[in-house]
Amino acid sequence: MLSDKQTIVGSPLGHPRNNQTERSEIMQQKARAQIALLLSVLLTLGLTGIATLVGCGSSTAKSQSAAVAATVNGTEVLESDVSDYITTLRSSYGYESDEDWANFLASAGYSAETLREDIIKNYYAQMIVVRQAAEEAGITVDSTAVDNEIASIRSAYGYESDEDWASILESSGYTEEQYRSDIELSLLADNLMGIAVSVADPTQEELQTYADANVATYYSGKKSSQILFKSDDTETAQTVLAELQQSSNLSKDFSAAATVHSIDAISSGDGGNRGWDCLNTFSTDYSDALGALEVGQMSGLIESDDGYRIILCTDAYAPAAAESIDLTAIPAEIYAQLLIDVTSEVTSTAQNVYMQGLLSAADIVINPMPDGLLYDVDLSATDDSESAQ
pTM of the predicted model, to two decimals? Predict the structure, then answer.
């Protein structure tokens, strides 16, 4: 059960490339329809997932279908669109009964009215002010840019055939037109931020603060190399292992053997180097074997789904969590990633400030919530009714 409002109402301005791991899992699991597309951090850009413009079905009474829920700088937000958004939210979580839906709202600190208000402010208003700011700045996104972005997304997630792509769009509650609109909006936001938000390189103070809070937990680990053999080439694997076990210069000989024998095209050209485990995602068998090694130690022959491998632990980095991090002692590859992540955080903060400025300057008028909306249920009997706002 969600307990934080920020996990319910998502910005429409993110898109799949911002968090490919999460988005890939969403796509593969068919995403519980559109709800996975709504899970993003409130009021930030560069977000996870894509919040969709819901246009299918309606939870509004027919008399409200053309009613205006709000205006944002003179642009109307229809009550039916807001209601459809909430209907999809409710359905995707599986809260079909009014009792379950009421308990959900109350436990998250919402009433139907405050949920409606948040969706208007933090979804529709963001879309509108971004489009308006982009128009004022003369920023446009042509269909070719949208085509290229969608092609990149399809390729990244393996949806090469039109049939597969149509299927995943449908299962996620999208039409092609809606998806293209979301991608266009995301590209508009990217271009707008590129012009409107200027971010300097992180200061040493910002780097130090971030490092002290995160390095020991997220940036410590082991560096390793591997030699990967075909699953039917155990004889060669055993021979190479035996030779390396007798080596007087294991690091040099391992690198040479990886260059000659390893079938991993990516690492073999670099002497088998696979980098730091904290910066990569390794298979369970690889991670388990590496975890048992100290620097300079080599594994035995490890059987895996992609063949037999030998692993050499080449370096380790594990600062004490309670100590201030010595930035000069961080391995170069880890420091490079740290710099990228701190820059991303600083940029995200600056973009958020800019977006807050757009929203603060906007003329947002939210009309009273009409009666007869199907998502407006009685919360008085719920356990958390007093916390619902």
Answer: 0.70
| Cα first-last separation, the chain | 18
Report the distance separating Cα 119 and Cα 82, nearest Å.
7
Do 103 and 30 share a structural domain? yes
Give the Cβ contact number of residue 188 at 10 Å: 22
CATH of the domain at 284: 3.10.50.40
The radius of gyration of the chain from alpha carbons, rounded to an integer in Å, stands at 26
> Interior CA angle at 197 toward 76 and 5, to 5°?
55
Contact (Cβ atoms closer than 8 angstroms) between residue 272 and residue 316: no
Domain that holds residue 361: 5-199+355-366
Q: In this structure, are residues 346 and 230 in contact, taking their beta carbons and an 8 Å threshold?
A: no
Largest CA distance in the chain: 84
Residue 226 bridge partners (DSSP): 311
Q: Classify residue 181: in a domain, yes or no.
A: yes
Residues 107 and 155 in one domain: yes
183 plus 281 within the same structural domain = no
| Closest CA relative to residue 45, chosen from 176, 191, 180, 172 | 191
CB distance 296 to 318 below 8 Å: no
pLDDT in tens, 337-355: 999 999 999 998 899 999 9
Rounded to whole angstroms, the Cα distance separating 193 from 45 reads 9
**124 close to 72: Cβ distance less than 8 angstroms:** yes
> Given a cut of 70, is residue 12 above it in pLDDT?
no
Give the confidence band of 331 by pLDDT, cuts at 50, 70, 90.
very high
- 298 lies in some domain: yes
Centre a 10 Å sphere on the Cβ of residue 183 and count the other Cβ atoms it contains. 22
Helices (H), 227-380: 234-245, 250-261, 265-268, 284-291, 332-361
Residues 24 and 170 in one domain: yes
Does one domain contain both 195 and 235?
no
The whole-angstrom separation of Cα 309 and Cα 290 is 12
The residues with which 229 forms a beta bridge, in sequence order, are 308
Q: How many domains does the chain have?
A: 2
> 173, 56 in Cβ contact below 8 A?
yes
Query: Alpha-carbon distance 387 to 389, whole Å?
Result: 6
Cβ contact 21:188 at 8 Å? no
Is it the case that residue 9 has pLDDT exceeding 90? no
